[in-house]
Amino acid sequence: MAYGLLYGMASRDIVLCFFLTVFLYSSFEDLFHWQTNGAISYPVTIFPQTGHMKVVIPPDIMNSNDSADLLAVKENSNLRLRCVATGTPKPVVTWRREDRKNITLWTENGVQRVESYEGEQLHLKSIKRQEMGSYLCIASNGVPPTVSKRYYVNVQFKPLITVSDQLVAAPANSDVVLRCYVESWPKALNTWYRHGGIKLLSDQKYVLTELPVNDYAYHLNLTIRRLNRNDFGNYTCSVENLLGKAEGTIRLQELHLTRTTSTPSRHNTEFIDKHGTKKQMDRKGKHHVFEWDGGSSVKNGGNTGHATSVLRRNSSNALTDVSVKKSKVSSYPAPAPAPAHFAPTQLNVQNSVTSLRQHSRLNCVELMFAFVAIVMTIGSV
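Structure tokens predicted for Lachesin (381 residues):
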């Protein structure tokens, strides 16, 4: 059978089997140090290779007995958060606030506010309501994935009410909103009372709402619709929890709306013309003539029988001459002196100077005509 097996093999396969047999024989002889006739044969030296394998384990957070997911503590007391993580290599534990606010730490150098803190234990001393919220314990060692655990801290305190507008005024037949700012934890029971201790409930007349500000603060609003006289008075917002009670009072009074109408005032313009007559022009364009007569002032409504020249202000605020009925006064009289009780104005002086200039011009013209007449008379002679 062996002969048949060898006969069926090719010469190439026979050669390969021979060399494989020789190699195995030499290897076993070197490994077990074969001995012949009490003497050790000369083995062929081989070099062994050593491999090192490093095992890594991703981080994990253990559940400790003194730590829970939801913690409650009274304000101004101390709180310790503990987070134990396992893994290879040893994980690094980092604390952060979920709302990205700073963590308040009490150290030897005083109070410090940091964005993050490293360590398995986080100590919060004299904790305040502003520190309420979620704290994250994050464990990482370079081997993914990074793991985290959330601790929610509740800070309990007595309710607090702040009323910014203690006096509110609104007209009748309108709607008004009364507001109270509340801070409380645990959540308080909210109640509104009107004058006389009457408890208010939400209906078509009153609407009670809450608008949250953060985890422990909110606005407590009361909307009163269609105000009437019976609605005006004092209103009280009241909140109460397990630690205490707080109240705030708002006074609602009626706002009386008055309508005011403005009448245009009449502005009169007074001036003195070249004849020394005091005149007045109102905004409607009606002229009033004032004449000085022996120091006494006489007012004429513009309907006089005298013909004189009146100065009127046009749209450009300039004085122009207009014609009225002929006056009995001489054409160019000397300007009448102003009464003692009337202080001369700059306009009076200007009018007087203008009258003198016009009178001088007329005298010059008369002299010229007289001179020409004399010359012509002499020439004819």
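The first strand starts at residue 35 and ends at 36.
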